[in-house]
Specification:
This protein is an all-beta fold and about 140 residues long. The strands form 2 sheets. The chain has a 4-stranded antiparallel beta sheet with strand order 1-2-5-4, with no helix packed on it. The chain has a 3-stranded antiparallel beta sheet with strand order 3-6-7, with no helix packed on it. The protein is elongated and about 45 Å long. About 5% of the residues have low confidence.
């Protein structure tokens, strides 16, 4: 929310699912200590324009931190644009939304993960709220 209490953006975690077995080409992108690789699908919307913010992007590593069931932070894996479940996090303008998928490597197998979101990385210096989602992992 902005200073007037209006919603500025929304974030929805659509799903978290175990990634399919990766072929050898992509195995090099997975950390050696990975116990489970998950695909997080999320949708974000820029609802109300802020004067000092032209566009919005919610991207992993900067804006989303994924934790396994024990609370240990995961690694974001950028497996490349040609992988079936990898996609860009586009910059969007007010009134627009984007749906994207990102891959994370968990240090422990988990049935449930937590995702923290919220920082000044959204381009709003006065945005200090943190959102935490707890989502079951689909197998």
């Amino acid at each position: 929310m902005n200073e007037e209490g209006e919603e500025v953006f929304s974030l929805t975690i659509n799903s978290v699912e175990v990634a399919p077995v990766l072929d050898e080409f992509y195995q090099e992108d997975i950390p050696a200590d990975s116990k489970q690789t998950v695909i997080v699908t999320y949708t974000y919307k820029y609802i109300s324009e802020l004067p000092d913010m032209d566009d919005l992007r919610v991207s992993p590593g900067d804006d989303l931190i994924v934790y396994d069931g024990s609370g240990l932070a995961s690694d974001f894996i950028d497996v490349g644009g040609d992988f079936p479940f990898d996609s860009d996090s586009p910059d969007i303008y007010p009134g627009r939304s984007a749906k994207t998928h990102k891959v994370f490597s968990l240090k422990n197998k988990s049935n449930v993960i937590q995702i923290d979101c919220g920082s000044v990385n959204f381009g709003m210096d006065n945005f200090n709220e943190k959102l935490t989602f707890e989502i079951p992992v689909e197998f």
